[in-house]
Write a structure and sequence with these properties.
Rossmann fold
Length: 276
Amino acid sequence: MVGSIEEVKRLMLSFDADKVAERIILFIREMFEESGAQKIVIGVSGGVDSSTTLKLLVDSIGRDKVLALIMPHQDITSRKDLEDAYMVADHFGVEYYTIEIADICSLIRHRLSPFMEFDEKTYGNIIARTRMITLYAFANSMNAIVAGASDKSERIIGYFTKWGDAAADIFPIMDLYKTQVRALARHIGVPESIAEKPSSPGLWKGHLAEEELGISYEKIDAILFAMNELHMGPEQIKKIEGIEEDEVELVLRLITTSEHKRKLYYPQVQDLIVKR
């Protein structure tokens, strides 16, 4: 039984980064070879998740087989994020294209505006799904597969856009929590400025993940790690020093209300058709 959040963090970050990177690299290589694809396409935002995934792709199949797409939205994507995306692509020596998506997203909003009101989240999800369409257009045109950059924290709490950033063929870092991704990023040579950069989906101006969620990833990851890897119940986790009861309740609520994002729901009817 752990007594403090610092103990949980120590356990969570006490992994062999070389072995983790090696397993991910082998996974990418095997999936790439089995797919028969010629390239892997990835969207690069300048954040830690996509930058770490990009480096692992390069280490696995070589930079010549990786294509990075940088997909800014005018007036929403910050200059810093754009500069970071270019810096990372140049740093790892991959071919990249810049696709401005504002006109595509704006057209969708224009066509739908007579029928509905648009808030930031609605339009932000259009941005995420437009990026997915763009990634798959390139993938389809060049016999490629798409690599996603979602991590375990985002997946479990549902902090992703269904059929948007959650749409990909392989997810190399899906079994790493956000804080573990940051540690791995530093180990494999992702620039420190990227490894420590605050997370942002970039779906509206000034969009920061922790502000929207109302809780830090440090707390989210400690709660999730205690729950999933240390097999502690909610009441036990609430007693961990450094974690508040309302923070545990918030994470549990995020998990519960996003369950529909992780499952396909449909009625079973074959028993009505095949009589035994």
